[in-house]
Amino acid sequence: MSDPFFFGYGSLVNRDTHDYPDAVPATSLGWRREWRVAHRFGRTFLSAVRDPGAAIDGLVARVPGDDWAALDLREAGYARHILPADDLRTPQPVTAQIYAIAEAHSALPTPAHPIKLSYLDVVVAGFLREFGETGVARFFETTTGWTSPFDDRAAPLYARARPVSAQTRDLVDTHLAARGVTILRD
After folding, report:
1. CATH architecture, domain defined by 5-178
2. DSSP-assigned letter for residue 178
3. Model's pTM, two decimal places?
4. Which 3 state secondary structure label does DSSP give 9?
């Protein structure tokens, strides 16, 4: 029996946040990324939203032994959805699953529930490694919900925060400024 696959489009693009084998760059058709506050958790997450005209880059990786337990725990608050092979651009055709928060159970970020820059930095570091600066620009262009980012870099609040380069932080800040987004600070 072959292992199933997941499609990661946010922090799962950063290989430093997981150890899933054989991850390869891929593009998912019919979805876009959006920052959403999950009501259940009261925190802002990067989610996927169905959008027939959209496409997002990410990584596809195996779930060894069909053991979804650890990944489902990591992605608590999300539901899994099937991505047929026709909706994925990968080196080899595969069917994968994508995690998304139901819009009915979420809302756009607010100052009370902001986008953590420590989270965004980790995501952008992954995109920079996998897709270069052009891929980082595509990440920002194909993501919505850019409201209320909060600068928690000095004391990261994101559970999977990792040190990132000054180049990565500068890219994040530059792309946010280009969208006219004001960063919230203490």
Report:
1. Roll (3.10)
2. H
3. 0.94
4. coil
